[in-house]
Amino acid sequence: MSVSLDQESIDYIAIRRLQAAYADMITRRAWDELPSIFCEGARIVVDRMDGTPLDLDGPAGLAAFVSKAIGHMDFFEFVILNTVIEIGDDEAHGRMYMCEIRHDAKAGQTMSYGLYRDHYRKQDGRWKFRDRRYRVMGRTQTTDYNIFPMAAADFAIGGQEATR
């Protein structure tokens, strides 16, 4: 069965929201929220281009890996650059190009560019990550960067008033 244009548009928006939720969770280091966007038994592979790719144990393994990798950074932001999605009835596949804007006191500013190849599945009306394969595409570094601390209010949405 083919997907109607209306349904494809709805699914496309839902998958883009899923990708944005992932980027937001990683930026906020909200590791406990990750299981809500992954299917049970999701396979996550990370290829840092420095040897054998890592096969992580679902969202818990992803959280452990990423929290260790960015724990020392005083600034980190996950930015989606572009995405392409092919949608079926309850399955979809996509590519997502991204960069990480990072800073730590010793290394200065670094940026990492990468590509996610994703398999999505719709469960109970919600799209989730079924499998993710990530590989690093490049890195840059500079020591000239200013850091401005963020407060909890910076993460408020809607009618929640931001105060410092």
TrEMBL record:
This is SnoaL-like domain-containing protein. Residues 8-133 form the SnoaL-like domain. Coiled coil: none annotated. It comes from Rhizorhabdus wittichii (strain DSM 6014 / CCUG 31198 / JCM 15750 / NBRC 105917 / EY 4224 / RW1). InterPro entries: NTF2-like_dom_sf, SnoaL-like.
